[in-house]
Amino acid sequence: MNKLIYISASWCGPCKTFGPVMNQVAESGIPVTKVDADRDQQALVDFQVRSVPAVVKVDESGKMLDKFIGVKSMEEVLNFYNG
Q1: Residue 31: which CATH number?
Q2: What is the pLDDT along the chain (83 residues), one digit of tens a residue?
Q3: Which residue from 24, 9, 10, 36 is spatially nearest to 76, judged by alpha carbons?
Q4: What are all long-range contacts of 63-68, with beta carbons under 8 Å and residues at least 24 apart?
Q5: 3-class SS shares of the chain: helix, strand, coil, % to 5
């Protein structure tokens, strides 16, 4: 099963707006792992993320399938996951 990795930072305004959306996505049953960009900088390198918020879709082995940067609606996140 694929999962989403949500990369954010405590100082990031858009992350504060997008956090509740990602919480709803997780509550809908989609596996979401939250990563703090300041604490886990290796994730930024691994997934080539230069801006937050970022959402990375990975497969069971952790291989990146796709990603997006910025704030999206819940519907857009679900379409990204299912796409």
Answers
A1: 3.40.30.10
A2: 999 999 999 999 999 999 999 999 999 999 999 999 999 999 999 999 999 999 999 999 999 999 999 999 999 999 999 99
A3: 24
A4: 65/2
A5: 35, 25, 35
Q: Where are the alpha helices (DSSP H) in the chain?
A: 13-27, 41-46, 74-82
| Helices and strands (DSSP H and E) totals, the chain | 3, 4
CA nearest neighbour of 30 among 58, 70, 7, 51: 58
Q: How many domains does the chain have?
A: 1
Q: Which residue range forms the structural domain that includes residue 64?
A: 3-82
Tokens of 63: 């291989």
* The pLDDT of residue 3: 97
